[in-house]
Amino acid sequence: MTVGAGINVADGNLVVLGKPVLTNVPGNVVVTPASGDGLIDGAFIGIRSDQTGSRRVFPVGKLEGLRFICLFRFKLWWMTQRMGAFGQDIPFETQFMLVECSDGSSDDQDSDASYAVFLPILEGNFRTVLQGNEQNQLEICLESGDPAVEEFEGSHLVFLGAGSDPFDIITNAVKTVEQHLQTFSHRERKKMPDILNWFGWCTWDAFYTDVTADGVREGLRSLEKGGIPPKFVIIDDGWQSVGKDPFSVDCKADNTANFANRLTDIKENHKFQKDGKEGERVEDPSMGLSHFVSELKDNHSLKYVYVWHAITGYWGGVRPGVSEMGHYDPKLAYPVASPGVDSNEPCDALKSIAQNGLGLVHPEKVFNFYNELHSYLASAGIDGVKVDVQNILETLGAGHGGRVQLTRKYHQALEASVSRNFPDNGIIYCMSHNTDGLYRDPASHTIHIASVAYNTLFLGEFMQPDWDMFHSLHPMAEYHGAARAVGGCAIYVSDKPGQHDFDLLKKLVLPDGSILRAKLPGRPSRDCLFSDPARDGKTLLKMWNLNEFTGIVGVFNCQGAGWCKVGKTNLIHNEEPGTLTGVVRANDVNYLPKVARDGWNGDAIIYSHLAGEVVYLPKNSSLPVTLNAKQFEVFTIVPVQKLTNGVTFAPIGLVKMFNSGGAIKDLKYEADKTATVEITVRGCGTFGAYSSNQPKRVVVGSKEVAFEYSEHKWLMTLELRVPENEAYRWIVRVAF
Fold it and tell me: Molecular function terms in GO for this entry (predicted)?
């Protein structure tokens, strides 16, 4: 039976682009072609069944001998990668799976490999996830989260998309599901908040919940003193008015939040009121958060101030019986996790909330709750919110029509309130994307880099992924900083006051507080998609991104630690992982031809940040790279252009920055029909370019400037001074 272009079900096999992906497909599996504008070869997988129940599991065929990567929730809050080749390798709570539709290895970008992406989606009041069993069957698991919600249609449970470019397939599959569900927008259609373009500081690791107004002031002054001014600050957990019920049992670990606490007022606690005293409340708005935020912006040239809150108000929700919370009609609810979540890693926070209950705002009152909270914050000068603990909603669906209904009401209300009160779309969704216990768990650092890179394959289609804050003064600080430079994400630290590495920060942040951010979410290169750079002992993680005219590739040795399905936690499985060697190629940057000039012949130069070397790479050639454990290198990759006089040229950018090429904002070859290259550059410091010949002269603005040229390295460099104006752009003209 032909169900869609490139997808067939015949003789018990699910065939994708002529290649069987699933065998022994049961007769009750239904495949429906995708409708729409033909973005992708694709179809929806469903189930015919007269069974009912709030949780059902259905096999859809055997997966054997085909490499795949899947992303699964190893904990209620967090997601990571798993690679395999058989159905039994697919974990519970798998949210995404990409399969290579041929046996063996097809890492070559020019090969004829094809790929299939499986996206479990929502249908009615049910959500679906993937999982495998011991018979190598791929299974679809449906759950409503409410014992009273048992009936489902079952025709559109998983979307299957196929094609020859894995990154295009994923993007187009998500866009097809967007058209089908009409409940979300693809990242490309969303407004990105401006904090993405500036350096910031978060109070969490600096103070945890002991944060105070004086602590925030001290942290900002400390960074400014070193010449790295934060342009946004996130006041994390610790600013709110919270308390616990008399019967609640404390749960506080690692200096973090007390999960037994509940929100008692939407306004700030005494620590953020002028002359505030514990146990007393100042009702005059001019003496509260507004006074403090105005002071911060006036004295520290901050552009944005964000604050943290849980999606339910606080970890324990809002406190019933408190007059300030009464009009939200909160009721105690007791979380029940799905069996798939329970089978993976246990969670102390969830246990505490399940024991003490959560004060859940009535779903019909939740918009009022968010709007009153956010309008108060906006009136105080707050520009956005960091929203945490979202996944708790899925455990509270009983009595509310199920997890999908409850979560949808909360998220629709949250997004409506953010749109009304924070017009820059000022929201950070916390959790799901990275790892638990970063900096508190010595196994976390390499795991974090690998997990976020692979999670971005999926989550990067919905949002600009947040790599979370890091510490600039730490043995792994450069490793984290380099990853964020490639990630295309916000760059912010959570340093304690006085504990900074300004030399590192200057590789990420310009003197005006802006950053050189890559254009896309950073993702693993094609030859890393089905190899595990955390566990297999042989693979280096390569992550790529694009700038306006250049590409960037970060290479990381992440071996030695990962989530253990036996121990059900992150573990260091190799204390001394070995030295690894791989290669870097121009086509590791999947979309590099999109930023090259028409007629580009495929030749490129590669500039290595740490080594400071320029290498000319003819088309399809590669550069070896060798890294010890926990080492990295960042490469700027630039298409080479041949001028009419035979000179070959490629601008690198600000060579002392991790993302050197992010400084290049415009590029014109043969300017004024002469052998001149005109480059628009944002920032300051050492600007570098590959050139096969020494230039005759270089002009910056209207002034001819001195430059250096190394014939041995084919590298031209010059110094750009610190501009007087923020985000200033220099015009650099190189004449031959």
Answer: galactinol-sucrose galactosyltransferase activity
- Other beta carbons within 10 angstroms of residue 566's beta carbon come to 6
| Nearest-5° Cα angle at 554, 192 to 678 | 70
Locus of tokens 């007791």: 334
- In angstroms, the Cα distances linking 11 to 25, 31, 45, 217, 238 are 9, 14, 17, 69, 61
**Distance, CA of 234 to CA of 213 (rounded, Å):** 12
Q: Are residues 160 and 253 in the same domain?
A: no
Give the mean pLDDT of 539-552: 98
- What is the number of structural domains in the chain? 3
Alpha carbons 373 and 240: distance in angstroms, whole number: 11
| pLDDT, mean of residues 422-435 | 83
- 653 and 727 in a common domain: yes
Name 286's bridge partners: none
Contacts 24+ apart (CB under 8 A), 404-409: 404/122, 404/124, 404/125, 404/126, 404/127, 404/144, 404/145, 405/125, 406/145, 406/363, 408/183, 409/363, 409/364, 409/366
Do the Cβ atoms of 564 and 611 come closer than 8 Å?
no
Q: Give dist(CA 476, CA 631) in Å, integer.
A: 9
For residue 237 the two structure tokens come to 């957990």
Do 14 and 137 reside in the same domain of the chain?
yes
Residues facing 537 on adjacent strands: none
In-domain check, residue 414: yes
Considering the domain architecture, whether residues 401 and 327 belong to the same structural domain is answered as yes
Range list of β-strands (E), 358-426 = 358-360, 384-388
| 251 and 314 inside one domain | yes
Residue pointed to by tokens 């049910």:
126
Measured distance CA(516)–CA(487) in Å, rounded: 11
For residue 95, the one-letter residue type is: Q
CB 736 within 8 A of CB 698: no
The partner residues of 69 in beta bridges, in order of sequence, read: 83, 98
* Total residue count of the chain as it appears in this document: 736
Token pair recorded at residue 168 = 């295009």
> How many angstroms separate the CA atoms of 130 and 481, rounded?
34
Q: How far apart are CA 173 and CA 153, in angstroms?
A: 22
Q: How far is CA 191 from CA 195, 366, 419, 463, in A?
A: 12, 24, 11, 10
31 occurs within a structural domain: yes
Judgement on whether residues 151 and 246 belong to the same structural domain of the protein? no
For the record, the structure tokens of 87 come out as: 């159905």
Q: Can you tell me the mean pLDDT for 674-691? A: 96
Final residue of a domain: which of 416, 432, 448? 432
Whether residue 589 is contained in a domain is answered as no
Listing from the earlier edge strand, what are the strands of the sheet with 427-429? Answer: 427-429, 384-388, 304-310, 232-235, 199-202, 491-493
pLDDT, tens digit (0-9, with 9 covering 90-100), for 472-482: 999 999 999 99
| 177 and 261 fall within a common domain | no
Does residue 79 fall inside a structural domain?
yes
Could you tell me the two tokens for 700?
A: 């910056």
Q: What is the CA radius of gyration of the chain?
A: 27
Question: Which tens digits make up the pLDDT trace of 359-388?
Answer: 999 999 999 999 999 999 999 999 999 999
Say what the pLDDT of residue 26 is: 96
Under a CB-based contact definition with an 8 Å cutoff, are residues 126 and 151 in contact? Answer: no
Q: Could you give the residue ranges of the DSSP H alpha helices within 164-272? A: 166-181, 204-207, 213-225
- Residue 250, domain extent: 237-266+309-432
Q: Is the pLDDT of residue 577 over 80?
A: yes
Residue with tokens 């105005």: 294
Q: Which helix (H) or strand (E) holds 615?
A: strand 613-617
The per-residue pLDDT for range 433-457, each reduced to its tens digit, is: 666 667 778 889 999 999 999 999 9
CA 383 to chain centre: 21
Q: Which residue, of 163, 184, 205, is where some domain finishes?
A: 184
423 Cβ neighbours under 8 A, 6+ residues apart: none
Are 21 and 137 within one domain? yes
CB 466, CB 490: distance < 8 Å: yes
Residue 638 CA to residue 640 CA, distance in Å, equals 6
